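Board notes (copied after class):
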Amino acid sequence: MSATPAPAATFSAGWLALREAADHRARNGALEAELARHLAGQKVVRIVDLGAGTGSSLRALAPRLGPRQHWTLLDHDGALEGPARAQLAAFAQGWRAEGQALVLALPGREVTVEFARADLAADPAAPLAHRPQLVTASAFYDLVSAHWCGRFAAALAGSGVLVHGALTCDGRDSWTPQHPADAAIAAGFRAHQATDKGFGPAAGPDAAAILAAALDQAGYGVSCAESPWRLGPQDGALMAQLAAGTAEAARAAGHVDGTTADDWAQARAGAQACIIGHLDLLAVPKG
């Protein structure tokens, strides 16, 4: 899932595939190395991935973790399970099925993958049913509300579970060169970003700070680090889709008219570069 704008605010397999290389470049490696240190020595590392999509978090993080891993890819419906299975099988050196699970062979690692559904909006504690040592998510927490963050943190209090979040939008976006409609488009996108995505009014660019405060209150030590997309000419297809989704969100929010949105999106499709600000978060139980 993602609050970085996809066309029509959808999270299709095509959009997730288009953004994956940029996501993986942007993820904060120092924070992930710290996460790996906290999980070192576990016989089996058990991970739940919230809003898992097609398994991008697994593809990014599994090579950093221990030799035996068990991932539960948790989402609200099964629409992306088929693409996830196919992409994970292609990612691995080899794979086999064990019932409904996939067992992936990666260099020096065996990774078991299960797929599960849960209504996270109604039950933020749902990940705990899978007995994880780590709950992770990518481009997810900016979709949820401040109230949900509080419920999620309270559910995890005292569990001993680590919490990791990659690529949470922080609102620090810029495009090169400048365009006369930049400010209006940005204001419209922020207004649209704050709309309800099924979890209450979305926290959007404030999400990392809100979640960090909630986890601190729940007994966690929290670290945040920057993980911006830095896109250039090699990312032309991604920038074009990003521009189209951003412009449509601004138009839908009523901040710009259709002509302005179209003109901005067309100009941005040929942009020299853009930076989309994100923050990564790691929360470790105190003591």
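Comment from the instructor: Residues 118 and 138 are 17 Å apart (CA to CA). Residues 1-10 have pLDDT under 50 and may be disordered.
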